[in-house]
Design brief:
CATH topology: Rossmann fold
Radius of gyration: 17 Å
Structural class: alpha/beta
Helix content: 25-40%
CATH class: Alpha Beta
Largest sheet: 6 strands, parallel
Strand content: 15-25%
Number of domains: 1
Number of strands: 11
Order of helices and strands: EHEHEEHHEEEEEHEHHE
Number of helices: 7
Shape: globular
Distance between the termini: 13 Å
Strand order of the largest sheet: 1-11-10-7-2-3
């Protein structure tokens, strides 16, 4: 782990979400610029979004924030598996924000059409650095298999893809997903991982302590060259870090 990566460990998922929310509040309050953030799905982000809605709805300048997603399942926005739907219900519907600030992946389209549409949205709205789009912050989780966004261990080629988005296939269910690729993730100004739960402990330990095994895990390879990476762990996820 190099100096650009930072690890913060908290008692439980709720403490992780509270700490992240406070960090984000200070971050967004220190600037008056537009802020492009790519969100993650999952239980801990849901906790975070609920905290945003309950504790920060009138504190954060939502009018400056544009919402994106790091990945999305190829399902309609009304489907319970939709990352967009979870965010809409837990956060977006509870804050004052214009529809023009919400840039979802249109999972109701065919997978290839959804990926193409998302690429056009990104190219139309985001600044570039080294010919790749710049997100101010990307929130990522990590699966029990070490995947992040929807880049799975059997699709490591997406880490080096020359496309902004790819259509990924879940290795067990076969479900199609649209995901940002490695070069986009690694061009962000900040990448913050939210990783909680005992089931993540083995992979967390490998990423932090075992370079040989870590090389096989997509999450290990997300490390913006010109940005900052912070891992927010709860104690269970961090329990095997030496």
């Amino acid at each position: 782990m190099n100096e650009s990566k930072e690890v913060r460990i908290f008692e439980d998922p709720e403490s992780v979400a509270e700490a992240f929310a406070l960090e984000f509040y200070h971050m967004i309050s220190s600037s008056r610029q537009r802020f492009d953030i790519a969100l993650s799905g999952g239980k801990t982000p849901k906790l975070l979004f609920e905290i945003f809605a309950s504790e920060y709805s009138n504190k954060i300048p939502w009018e400056r924030i544009h919402f994106w997603w790091g990945d999305e399942r190829c399902v309609p926005p009304t489907d319970n598996e939709s990352n967009y739907k979870m965010t809409q219900e837990s956060l977006l519907s509870k804050i004052n924000i214009d529809e023009s600030q919400i840039h979802r992946i249109k999972g109701e389209l065919s997978p290839d059409a959804a990926a193409s549409d998302y690429i056009l949205q990104i190219q139309s709205h985001l600044n570039e650095r080294d010919n790749w789009p710049i997100f101010d912050l990307i929130i990522l989780g990590m699966g029990d298999d070490g995947h992040t966004a929807s880049i799975f261990p059997d699709q490591m080629e997406f880490l080096k893809s020359d496309k902004i988005c790819e259509v990924a296939t879940h290795p067990e269910s076969g479900q199609k997903r649209v995901t940002l690729t490695g070069k986009v993730l690694n061009n962000a100004n900040r990448v913050y991982f939210l990783v909680t739960g005992k089931s993540k402990a083995k992979r967390v330990s490998e990423i932090m302590n075992n370079l040989k095994k870590a090389q096989k895990l997509p999450a290990f390879h997300v490390e913006p060259a010109k940005g900052k990476t912070i891992f927010f762990f709860d104690q269970k996820a961090a329990s095997k870090i030496s």
